[in-house]
Structure formats: C-alpha cells, structure tokens
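debug: dumping io for the single-chain case to check the tokenizer round-trip. Nothing else runs in this session.
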Amino acid sequence: MRKDYRLEKRKYVVGGFVVVLVLIFIIRLFELQVADSRYKENADSNAFLRKTVYPSRGLIYDRNGELIVYNQPAYDVMMIPRDVQPFDTTDFCKTLQISREEFDKRMADMRRNPGYSSYSQQTFMSHLSAKDYGRLQEKLYRYPGFFIQKRILRQYNHIAGANILGNIREVNSRDIERDDYYRSGDYTGDLGIEKSYERQLRGEKGVEILIRDAYGKIQGRYDDGRQDVRAISGKNLKLGIDIELQEYGEMLMQNKIGAIVAIEPSTGEILAMVSSPTYDPTTLVGRERGKNYRELVRNPYKPLYDRSIMAAYPPGSTFKPTQGLILEQEGIVNLTTSYPCHHGYINGGLRVGCHGHESPITLKPAIRTSCNAYFCWGLKNMIDRRSKYGTPARAFEVWKNHMVSMGYGYKLGIDLPGESRGFIPNSAFYSKIYGEGRWSANTIISIAIGQGEILATPLQIANLCATIANRGYFITPHVVKEVEGDTIASLYKEKRYPTIERKYYEDIVEGMRMAVVGGTCRNASFGDVEVCGKTGTAQNPHGRDHSAFMGFAPMNNPKIAICVYVENAGFGATYGVPIGGLMMEKYLTGEISPQRKYLEQRMLESNTILYSGVKKH
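debug: decoded output
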C-alpha cells in the first residue's frame, strides 16, 4: 500500500502548531507571574499599606549660628479611595469642622488631580491644627480608608529675610514630571534658597510598611518594621547672612521702595539683602497660604519681587568709579589729567549739567565731587580716539568688555533664583539705532555717568564696591556659607579678576575716601572707622530721581561693602548715604553712636513710598 505523503506532512504541521500554542501560553504565564508586577502589587495593596515617611527638612542658620528657619509637625488627612467604606459623613465633617459642600468639593477636586488612582494615597485635607488632629485621631477607626500623614511645615524665629529664604508649597504637575522624587501632595521649595537648595534641604523619603486584615484594618508593622526604609533628614544650611543686620536693614527701608545689598568683600558672602517692601514669611505657611499668596501677588507694591537681584536700575554716579578705572587702564587719563567743568559738560551744542565745584578737575577730586563733566570728557576722548581704536564702535567694544569683566551686563551667578542681568549695550546695539558709522561719543555720552541705556542690579553695584574694596578681584556673591556634610560650589570660592590692573583701584579707593571726608558722602562717616563711598542720583523719567550709594569700610582690610538704592528718594546723599552709613556702623560696631541717633530716627520715620506713583499709600 502506497504512503500518503500529504497526511504525513499534515502531522508535522499540526504538531508544530501545538508547540507554538504551548510556547505562547508559557511566555504569557511568565509575563503574568514573573515579569509583570501589577498583580502582585494589587495583591500587596490589599495586604499592606506602604506609608510614606517624610524626612525632616534641613534647618537654616545665620552666619553666627542663630537658628532662622526650623520645622514644626503638620498633619494631613489622607485616604485610599478604594478602601473607603460607608461611614457617617456628617460626623466626619463635624470632626474636621467643614461643611458637607466643602467635603463634596474636596472629593471632586481630588478625582481631577493628575495621576489620580483609587488604589493610591490621596490628600483629602492639608495642615490640620493640633486641635483638629487630636479630635480626628480619636475617631479615625470610624472612617475606614482614611489615615493621618505627618508632614513638616516651616517655622521662623525672625520675621525677616523673606526674599532670601523663600518658602515651600505643594508640588504641581510640572514638578512631578520633572522629578520622580515627588508625588501628588508633596512639598517643594518655592523662591529663595528653599528653591535653589531644594535637593539639599529636602532629604530622602522613607517607607513604613503596615499590614492589614481582610477588612482593611491596620494590624501593625510588617515584619516588626525590619522591611521599613528610614527617612534621611535634609542637610542644614549656614548662611552668610547676619540676621540682626538683615532686620535692621528692613527697619530702615520701611515705607520705602528699593534694596540694600551688603557683602563681605574677602569671601563674597552676602551679609544682608533687603528688598522693600517685604512681607512676613509666616503668612505663606499653613492652610491660609494660597489666600495670602494671592494677596501678595495682587499687592501693587510687589513685595514678592526681589528688587535686590531682579530690579535693573540706572546706576547713576555709582557707575563713575568704573569709568575712572577704564580710562586709566586704557591710558586715556592719569592722575594729572584734568578736564574743565563749566557747571557741566559742554561740547558741540550738547550740555550735561553738573553742580558747582573747582575747575578744571582731576580724577580723585572728580570722584569726591561726583563731577559729570570729567567722566563725559574722558569717555569722549576714548570713544572718539581713532588713532588708537580705529572706529568708535571698536573703542566701544573695548569699553564694554572691561565693564563685563567687572560684573555688569550678565548675571553674576548668585545662588538665588530670578537674578537679572541688567543691561550693558554693545556697539551693534547703537549701530542698529543710529546706523553703522553714524554715531560717536556724544551720541551716547550719558552712559559715562550711569544713565542712558545702562542698567544694573543692586547686587551688581554692591559687587563692584566689593571689587574696589579688594583692589581688583571679587568672589561671586552667594547667600549660603556652608552646607552640612557637603561643600559649596567652587564658583563661590574662586577669585574673579577684572581686566583692570590693581594699581588703578588704589586711586579709586582714595577718591572714594575723599568723598566721605569732604565730599558728597559725609553722612556715611562714623567714629574713627575709615569709610569709603560714592553717591548716585539716578535720573528717573517717571518721577522723582532715585537715591543710590555704594561704600565699604574699613578702607584697609574691609569687612563690608554695600549698595543702597531707594526709588523716588531724590539725591543720593539724602537717603542712600545715611542708610548705607548706618548699616556699616551697625555691622562693624554693633550699635549706632548717640551722636548719630538723630540720623537713624530720620531714616526710620521717613516715607518715600508716597512718591512712587503707586495708587495706594
């Protein structure tokens, strides 16, 4: 009998098909039982409650070891929706002192949260008071599916430095997307060092594994806690801030708009950084945070706007020392070079006014008297010197590069969010406005005295002062002095050298000393301390001029360099100088001498915010 080869082949086909099916089943079983953890997680979620343990947030101290920011416990009402069983909602609402309408709204809002899952922990209510917590704790067994989560809130020993410290807030969807550390209901730093040092301050979360019975009731810790993960506390920070000096600066700036920045020249550490008007940092803690934050945002004086690093102002005559340095470095002037001042700079039909003083005048007396004409003539002789630079545009680029090396025109890199770069134009900027080759020094002469297009932050002005105090170098200004168990970035340790030789800084120092001894900065003088200073009166097209001052002390081995900027306050000598002098005296001597108490009282009682133009006083 002949073999049917077709039947023989069909046998192998059927066998192969069976083998393929078996393999598919085996692979799928492997995926379900080994590779895919979802079913295990669902089973585990019935037997275990993995409770997040939030770490203690790092503490914040001032430079003298004074505790500024610490933690206090807070309690959130949490729930796992699938575990919630029917309960007495009226009693629940009464216990938490909320209405039924608020209960329903909270439940609805929770379901709309990104990443909501009925299997995962959800925040029903944040920031229970100690009284509410105690009342709920007694009755918690009546509300299956609900539990209490302990968290950390910030507390403050001093009502000062809100712009430096920042605050913490609940994370949003963007925070969660950017960093898988966060889950819905977590908190993160918002503004100030709470934001810029968030990773160091927040620590690492822990996990507590609780076991529960078939009815969902907690029976205790799984494996006696041996499988728990311990939370690791955040790192403590020590600031360069002197909190007493910070408080004093905020007192002096009451009823004023502006900023104070004080730096220790040898280290670049910020000693005080005042932004006025300011706000009470405790208002952004607790259940009322959202409401208080909205009020601060709507406040016409913008207290959340950190004027010390964000505001870009015309620096006025505080800019003149930079011009003296550049003119000497470029060989345009020396100590014997003199220029005329006929109550101002007069050239080619152009006039820039100036007050009365001796004429002609040389560099150091020009700084002492804050002569506009001297620096205008100096800039003209540099920008229009074709024999050296070829064109005004090339000369201007040399000028601009010197300015950038001194910390102007770009962010300095302070360890706080939101720093402004100010503004230093380049030659292309003017060529675009006036046409290439169609402008000269007289076209832009106002920049010689810190006006026109020039803008600088109070931080940049204070940093210039620290550079002069150091005779030719600065360390990038920074707020944080030490991080517990860690080091600060090398940026905040390395010296940065501008393109100006040291010997020229000595000339500027002497000119600034002359300004205090017998010039525009007399009110900055105190005791036998040799103070150096420079006033600034910045023209303001929108109202009264701004009052500015920069200074440092002592003249040799300086301990503090400062910038004061008061909006709409008139001459630099009227407000900038006295406030700057009082701040330096307070820091160096610890008190204000009886002979200068009258000056302190005048600054404390004065009100310049009236001239701000804001429709609220």
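debug: round-trip ok. The two ends are 116 Å apart (CA to CA).
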